[in-house]
């Protein structure tokens, strides 16, 4: 639907026909003077009454056009790459209406965001170009931090949405690969939120099943409100931004499995891993396993000199974690070494919600005086020796 504007300029000129009559009582010069004065008077009247002033309608249309011309065309203004900011949305309509959003990784041309509801955590990667912002990766049930742009894990979804597209003007519409159609339906909305009055643009998205969402993108904030309506208007779900907490890390609960005092089994303890935007999980995981974070001093598994070189989820559902070579230099018997490795595998496997972990040392198979793993051999998560 295109929004057209018409401009109309009204002009009028007053034309007066002068009827002069003479009865022979006036001379010729007087008649000419009177005629000249009459013409001058008419010209002045014409200037006053027909001065090319625009009508009220034209003025309103010009103001509307000016307002539209002032819409910032920088897409990052309306969908910014925030860092270290927790966005909390209150909701109404069902149990999944409230949710939080957190920016996990910010790059020059992409933003990885996690959205957490009562049901699941969904990670989405948004790609930024000069003309549009669109999804390029979507993965549900993702309760761990991973840079999916770098690891190259395939998306669980192939049909993506285009979030915003230029030109940002009333009536502009576009189709997304998922079959939905979006249209900019307002460019000058002021939404009253707990944060205050926010300037926003309105985007209405129609889906193939005739349901729709109305998204409001606030200046320098991003999504500030989302309204979902079912095809028959019997269901309405509203999610509205309530707080924006800057300088806030993302928190993950971690269960650490460490050898007990008698070296007979594994004790488990729950700690919190805190990650800011662009922080990889491997560094924080190494600190936790070394007992260098609060509440982990008594559950140290790694030596202080041991580092995690890389850690990521493979496409086959196995986590590959590569340590520095001094991991194998434990100076312990085979039983203690095996139990230590089991504690590491259980801790990392729990974090990723997987059943198998591939342990390597500087990208070579794990090898020590007691334990030798073959190329590609994995270590299973096992809770058989965990103390209750």
Automatic annotation (TrEMBL):
Task: Please name one Pfam family that this protein belongs to.
Answer: Germane
Q: Which superkingdom, per the lineage?
A: Bacteria
Q: Where along the chain is composition biased (Acidic residues)?
A: 44-72
**Region (Disordered) location:** 30-72
Determine if Disulfide bond is one of this entry's keywords: no
Q: Does the keyword Signal apply?
A: yes
Task: Report domain GerMN positions.
Answer: 281-370
Query: PROSITE patterns attached here?
Result: PROKAR_LIPOPROTEIN (PS51257)
Sorted alphabetically, the keyword list is: Signal
* Signal peptide boundaries: 1-26
Mind telling me what this protein is named?
A: Sporulation and spore germination
């Amino acid at each position: 639907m295109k929004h057209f504007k018409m401009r109309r300029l009204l002009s009028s000129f007053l034309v007066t026909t002068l009827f002069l009559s003479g009865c022979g009582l006036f001379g010729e010069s007087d008649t000419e003077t009177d005629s000249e004065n009459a013409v001058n008077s008419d010209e002045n009247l014409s200037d006053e009454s027909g001065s090319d002033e625009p009508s009220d309608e034209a003025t309103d249309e010009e103001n509307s056009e000016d307002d539209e011309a002032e819409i910032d065309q920088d897409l990052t203004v309306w969908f910014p790459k925030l860092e270290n900011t927790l966005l909390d949305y209150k909701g109404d309509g069902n149990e999944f209406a409230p949710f939080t959003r957190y920016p996990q990784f910010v790059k020059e041309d992409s933003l990885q965001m996690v959205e957490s509801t009562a049901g699941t955590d969904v990670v989405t990667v948004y790609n930024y170009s000069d003309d549009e912002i669109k999804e390029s990766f979507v993965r549900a049930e993702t309760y761990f931090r991973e840079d999916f742009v770098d690891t190259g894990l395939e998306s669980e979804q192939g049909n993506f949405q285009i979030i915003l597209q230029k030109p940002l003007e009333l009536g502009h519409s576009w189709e997304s690969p998922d079959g939905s159609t979006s249209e900019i339906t307002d460019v000058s909305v002021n939404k009253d939120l707990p944060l205050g009055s926010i300037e926003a643009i309105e985007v209405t998205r129609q889906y193939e099943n005739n349901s729709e969402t109305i998204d409001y993108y606030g200046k320098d904030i991003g999504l500030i409100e989302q309204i979902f309506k079912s095809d028959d208007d019997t269901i309405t779900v509203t999610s509205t931004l309530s707080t924006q907490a800057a300088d806030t890390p993302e928190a993950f609960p971690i269960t650490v499995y460490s050898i007990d005092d008698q070296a007979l089994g594994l004790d488990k303890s729950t700690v919190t891993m805190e990650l800011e935007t662009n922080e990889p999980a491997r560094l924080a995981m190494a600190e936790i396993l070394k007992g260098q974070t609060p509440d982990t001093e008594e559950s140290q598994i790694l030596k202080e000199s041991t580092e995690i070189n890389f850690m990521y989820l493979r496409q086959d559902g196995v986590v590959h974690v590569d340590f520095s070579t001094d991991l194998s230099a434990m100076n312990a018997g085979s039983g203690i070494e095996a139990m230590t490795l089991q504690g590491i595998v259980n801790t990392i496997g729990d974090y990723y919600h997987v059943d198998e972990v591939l342990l390597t040392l500087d990208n070579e198979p794990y090898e020590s005086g007691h334990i030798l793993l073959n190329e590609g051999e994995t270590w299973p998560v096992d809770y058989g020796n965990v103390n209750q």
